[in-house]
Amino acid sequence: MNIKQFFVPAGKPLSGLAVGLSIFLTALFLVNNLVYPINEHLLLKPDSLFKFDLNRISLYPLAHLSFFHLFFNVISTFSMIVMFEESHGTLYTGVILNLLAVFTAIPYCLIGSLLFPNVEIGGASGWFFSFLGYFAVKESRVRNSVMITSTFSFPTLYFPVALLFVTALLAPGSSLPGHAIGLLLGYFMGLKENWVAKITPPSFVLKKIETWVDPLINLIPFGIKYYREVEVDRSLEYTSVYLGSESRLPLHNTDTPAEPTFQGNGRVLGN
User: Fold this and answer.
1) Residue 41 falls in the annotated catalytic set
2) For every residue of the chain, which 3-state class applies, written as one string?
3) 8 Å CB contact between 28 and 73
4) Catalytic choice (48, 58, 79, 125)
5) How many domains, the chain?
6) Which of 129, 250, 136, 128 is nearest to 190 (CA)?
7) Residue 10: left (phi > 0), alpha (psi -120 to 50), or beta?
């Protein structure tokens, strides 16, 4: 697998939301530590749902508690957002990020009010697990397993679950319930993406919004791509993030050597 493709698809500029969000998260972290403790108004509390505190319910992914917390979340979510944004559009991806935050917060608050009423959470790692679950569903339809070593493979669909528990072991202070809820939402989004589309604004609304803010979109620097609604087609089939000869694996063993297959021009997700 070509890891570079996760960050900078060949011959393509960086995606606008992925870059902008990374910069914004960093700026908020600096403001919180140097200017004003903004995290006090962003961290999600289990009682936030019952107080109808919309700031905390939707904005808690923006709050980070340490530099390493910020660094690992920016690095892990960047590639996921790049891939999703390229195939779904910048504005639509922003809507999805907000929906994921809200629909993760609701069950977290319900569970947390009973089991851990005094625990606050923040950070974008829930987004990472949601997108990880989403891409695992899509990838599992192309590759049923991922090669870990030359002799050991792991089911593609359950790889995020393994990573969920590894993360809990390596970072015991992280929110396992929040990550698990985010992962379940990602699985749901991958399995029922047409259902998710029904709770997002219609395409014509997104196009209208982009028309209104077009002067601002045109200010985006060269080398950073804003994927407009008119440029994307969310009905296109998923393309594996694995490149070259690994892009498809057989689902069963065969005793006869496979005949050479035509190697067409591959494309990165969303092209």
Assistant:
1) no
2) CCCHHHHCCCCCCEEHHHHHHHHHHHHHHHHHHHCCCHHHHCCECCCCCCCCCHHHHHHHHHCCCCHHHHHHHHHHHHHHHHHHHHHHCHHHHHHHHHHHHHHHHHHHHHHHHHHCCCCCECCCHHHHHHHHHHHHHHHHCCCCEEECCCCCEEEHHHHHHHHHHHHHHHCCCCCHHHHHHHHHHHHHHHHCHHHHHCCCCCHHHHHHHHHHCHHHHCCCCCCEECCCHHHCCCCCCCCCCCCHHHCCCCCCCCCCCCCCCCCCCCCCCCC
3) no
4) 125
5) 1
6) 136
7) beta
Examine residue 241 and state whether it is found in any structural domain, yes or no. no
CB 80 within 8 A of CB 224: no
Q: Which of 64, 69, 88, 179 is catalytic?
A: 179
Asked if 26 and 66 count as a contact pair (C-beta separation under 8 A), the reply is no
Mean pLDDT score across all residues of the chain: 86
Question: Within a 13 Å sphere around the CA of 79, how many CA atoms are in the beta-carbon half?
Answer: 16
- Nearest 10 degrees: CA dihedral of 147, 153, 159, 163? -90
The domain that holds 134 is classified in CATH as 1.20.1540.10
How many C-beta neighbours within 10 Å does residue 107 have?
16
Q: pTM for the whole thing?
A: 0.83
Residue 75's domain comprises 14-230
The residues with which 44 forms a beta bridge, in sequence order, are 121
Domain annotation covers residue 92: yes
- Annotated catalytic, 252? no
pLDDT value, residue 244: 42
Q: By percentage, how much of the chain surpasses pLDDT 90?
A: 72
